[in-house]
Amino acid sequence: MANCLFPEWYPQDAIQLTWPHPESDWAPLLSRLEATLETLVAVIARYQHVLISVADGGTRQRLLTTFTQMGIDTQRLRLYVAPSDDTWARDHGPIAVAREGHPHLLDYTFTGWGGKFPASLDNTLTRRLVDQGAFSATVETRSLVLEGGAIDTDGQGTLLTTRACLLNPNRNRQWEQTDIEKQLRRDLGIERFLWLEHGHLEGDDTDSHIDTLARFCDHGTIAYVRCEDQSDSHYPELAAMEAELRAMRQPDGTPYRLIPLPWPSPCRDPEDGHRLPATYANFLIINGAVLVPAYGDAADQHAIQALQNAFPARDIIPIDCRTVIRQHGSLHCLTMQLPCGSLNLSP
After folding, report:
1. For the chain, what are the domain ranges?
2. In this model, does residue 248 exceed pLDDT 70?
């Protein structure tokens, strides 16, 4: 492929995960989150490799024992010791771009979504993996603050993103839109920018990451969250976002095929009742399958059906994310894909 940002559906070597630890905000929910991640690893390992960074050698050995007992092929697993602040690999993991037919990984600066949370360990995690030989691809460091969840691509030079996040002064204070576009043209081979003005989820710490709102399924198809309940506080913003998506055009001038994703019933924190940013747009594309966040809601099945329509040749597999959403993220936020040629697959 040409020099450009890889789309998520490009064949992958692995999915990258960052394992939680007791010194993080996950402490009260650690065992429940680990159970969710164990299920996630078991599913992904049926299709491809999984790269997991862990806090220490003891955790590494414990997980290898657990995965062996679960019947997971440990030849599909790559575990490295690399301390972290949190689990959101989508935002501190490397972003893959094709150059002359080969993958290169770009290690952008991560600041905990504009300084909201500690991120110093997360920001050095990719370099720690490089030092241990985790990647076969070249890794380059960038000073630009950029999270993987903030951008989505059709793999043909078009980038879909939100102004609320990518142009937020809490990321790159001195950068104007033209500066950001110039950098991403150079780094990622972007030729067209589709900027969303609208779209917001209550409880979202990311300033409207695109992967919570609208996602490319192929170069001509976008799946997006739709709220039909006019009494819901999200209705005005999501209706305005839907209108923006309907007005967008492909490079040849044709409209995008739009696939609406259902709106789950309000998902609330069981302790203080605040609303959590549950969204089905946070799905993950892997080799041969699409993993869909599930919230124990009647809308789960409708989301599965919608994404089966978007990905008719892939298995559609729900992953229970009711624990994950307690920390204001979901399935896609936990993961980062590494395209073929990125991972060191030697024993």
Report:
1. 4-339
2. yes
